[in-house]
Amino acid sequence: GGGGGGGGGNLSGVWASLCSAHAGKELRVVLGLSVGNNFTMAQALQGFSTDILLHAGVPRPFAFSTAIGVARLCGVCLCVVLVDRVGRRPLLLGGAGGMALAYAAIAYGYAGRAPMTIGVGFTALFFCWSASWAGLVWTVSAELLPSHLRAHGMALTIVLYWVLAFATSEVVETLMFELTPQRACALFSLGCLAALGYVAACVPETLHSSLITTHDGAQPDTDVAHSRAASRAGVSAMPPRLSRTLSEDSADSTVQEWSAYVHRPRVANEMH
């Protein structure tokens, strides 16, 4: 009963934050990232890439599909290498810009009847997406959301992302045929530029942010110091700010778990 009530309270807090001009800023930014990720159309196109290459007359389309898969893997590896070196925001900006250029190249390939340009453009498109927006959006979203909103906020943004992904997947082929492929790719390029502008205007860098935040968004540095001081004194104490966020019905069990597990390594070392 208590768990269900707490869950309902947290969900109510998500909707209240979403409607609040100040408290819901991070949540709205995260939801905007899900929208921007779908604006790039990469998620929608990846399931149709082989068919698109076939219809475009790209030579050896299945070999290009394999190259696209390798490019995606290389993009993920590059993201892992750079994410904690250059930061999240530069990768999102660079990825959106790279995808816009790739779409422009694809549109040029369709207009000039250059199938190889189309194949190379699609390979570059999925490389740029995998190196940035494909996975990094979820990292940034988790780092932006405060602790009390993170679980339900992430659930909400994931649902929004996949609803939009379903919708864009349903219309992408229609857009390619009705608008002509070159015009559709030009439109997708504008979507990538819109995503780039959104990151530039609204998304902060989260490289050095802490995943532990309070209701007011503060970083609990004083709580860390408190815990370390208590540990040096041999006392199992919860950080005061954490204890204040607990509901009354869960406070006792949480204190017991904290005392039982947090300082267990210290006790074991002292016994030896």
Description:
The structure is a single chain. This protein is an all-alpha fold and 272 residues long. The protein is 78% helix and 0% strand. The chain has helices at residues 2-19, 25-39, 42-45, 49-55, 61-82, 88-111, 115-130, 133-144, 147-178, 181-202, 221-232, 240-245, 248-261, 264-271. α2 runs antiparallel to α8 and α2 (25-39) packs parallel to α9 (147-178). The chain is globular and about 50 Å long. The two termini are 43 Å apart. The model is unreliable at 1-6, 214-231, 233-238 and 241-250 (pLDDT under 50).
- Please provide the count of β strands: 0
**Average pLDDT value?**
78
Helix amount: over 70%
Measured between the Cα atoms of the first and last residue, the distance is: 43 Å
What kind of sheet is the major sheet? none
Radius of gyration: 24 Å
Order of helices and strands: HHHHHHHHHHHHHH
Kindly report the oligomeric state of this protein: single chain
Number of helical segments with 4 or more residues: 14
In terms of DSSP E residues, the strand content is under 5%
Shape: globular
